[in-house]
Amino acid sequence: MQGSTSPGQFVFEERAGESVPSVLYDEHVKLTSKSHITAFAGYLMPLWYSSIAQEHRAVRQNAGLFDCTHMGVLEVCGPDAGLFLDVVSTNRVEDLKLGRARYGYVLDAAGNVLDDIIVYRRGETRFMVVVNAANEAKIRSYLHELQQGRAVVDTASSLWAAKLPKLKVSIQDMRDPNRPSDRRVDLALQGPASFDTLGKLTDPSAAKRICELKSFAFVEEKVGGIDCLICRTGYTGSNVGVELFVDPKEAPRLWNLILEAGRPLGVLPCGLGSRDSLRIEAGLPLYGHELDGKFQISPFEAGYGWAVKLDKEFFIGQAAMRRVAETYDMEVARIELSAARGVRPIRQDDALLDEKGECVGWVLSAAKIEEKQIALAYLDRKAAVEGTRLGVYYLARSASQAEQGRLEVVTKGQKVDSDLGGTVTSRFAKF
Question: What is the pLDDT of residues 292-323, one digit of tens each?
């Protein structure tokens, strides 16, 4: 962590520690074997309950309920909260209307992606910011460093570096057990039966308001008598679905109420496995894979340049993003391959080849869905065109495979023999 009293490049030192049970851990143990629970982003979370395939189908056909209580939830409030977040986020925040949310990115001054975030406007001077679980401590530290004037804001000017520490802003962890009130953790209900399920737990007027929510809009209502912030957002690509932000003490009761109400409608509890396969199928990025990570993938390369408002007066990392927008030659694409019996599954880092056998990219994430393999890949922009046929080179995964002559690394432009063909599909699937 940046410790200097003068502005410097932000550096966050991850502190290793044992994973802790999520707020819903006891409920997970009732529903599945402890062998199906794994450490993820510092928390013990369920991989699956029934099976990844069954839970995936439930979300697409009915609905699934996800434990997202590991996600970071911050409150940024004060007279200058909107301006502060407008400088921190690549997207616009100051003009965000009450009851609306917006997706964006937090960058450092050099343009490195620290996280992708969603900002919710709950009042004129009150915002909620949701961050990835693995990045929560980093982002909270970064915001405090900016607030205290200890992190570089702009490599070209000192104007905003001088302004930020003077802004009247309070930053708090909404999951903090010492917070006296308005604590929040996240549950996600995703799939076509989501609204019908919540309709059983709300009065008719509240049910109508929830059903009428537009994308990235939210209301605060009671569900099963429990105060909830309900937003039309999610991480599955489902056209119907919400996230419910609730007091952690009430999360287990809300979890069980939703599952009970949804059981006749085919609602299932869902784990990390199906959350990953659903987001890959939908073409959604995961931080560390399709965003930042080993390739330092930018929002433009990830397909989210629309969330980077280069015409804003200023945001941290703006100058670097302008350069990226003009020069990037790689982008994330979705590809589809066979998953028939006997076909070897593709994995992260496997090389993708053009018709000449030259490497034009690599697999970032992959999942088997029914009889198909779906992958997100980092491709040369010339190859990232729907309908393009690609070869796959499976990298060596063991010493014996390496001894048999399989390569462990393939670089861009290197020519190798491909094993299997795939096809570039539309970037974002619709359901």
Answer: 999 999 999 999 999 999 999 999 999 999 99
Judge contact between 334 and 384, C-beta under 8 A: no
Span 352-363, mean pLDDT?
95
Fold entry, domain 331-431:
Elongation Factor Tu (Ef-tu); domain 3 (2.40.30)
Least Cα distance to 362 among 376, 372, 343 occurs for 376
Count CA atoms within 13 Å of residue 367 on its CB side.
20
What is the rounded distance in angstroms from the CA atom of residue 73 to the CA atom of residue 75? 7
What is the third-level CATH fold of 72-173? Answer: Alpha-Beta Plaits (3.30.70)
Residue 324: closest CA among 142, 162, 105 = 105
User: Containing H/E element for 414?
Assistant: none
When pLDDT is cut at 50, 70 and 90, the band that residue 91 belongs to is: very high
pTM, two decimal places: 0.94
Q: Which of 170, 191, 207 is nearest to 78 (CA)?
A: 170
Angle CA 253–257–262, to nearest 5: 150
CA trace torsion 283, 272, 119, 301 (10° rounding)? -30
Q: Residues near 366 by Cβ (< 8 Å), separated by ≥ 6?
A: 280, 345, 346, 347, 348, 373, 374, 375, 376
CA–CA distance, 298 with 324 (Å, rounded to integer): 8
Quote the mean pLDDT of the chain. Answer: 93
Name every residue whose Cβ is closer than 8 Å to that of residue 286 and which is 6 or more positions away in sequence.
Answer: 276, 279, 365
Tell me the torsion sign for CA atoms 51, 46, 246, 235.
negative
Query: What are the extents of the domains in the chain?
Result: 20-69+181-279, 72-173, 331-431
- The DSSP letter of residue 4 is -
Please, are residues 183 and 176 in contact by the beta-carbon 8 Å criterion? yes
- 101-121 pLDDT, tens digit per residue, is 999 999 999 999 999 999 999
CATH 3.40.50.80 holds for 20-69+181-279: no
* Dihedral sign, Cα of residue 46, residue 369, residue 364, residue 106: negative
**What dihedral do alpha carbons 256, 261, 262, 265 form, nearest 10°?**
160
For 243-261, write each residue's pLDDT tens digit.
999 999 999 999 999 999 9
Could you report the per-residue pLDDT of 179-216, keeping only the tens digit for each?
Answer: 999 999 999 999 999 999 999 999 999 999 999 999 99
Predicted confidence at residue 338, as pLDDT, reads 83
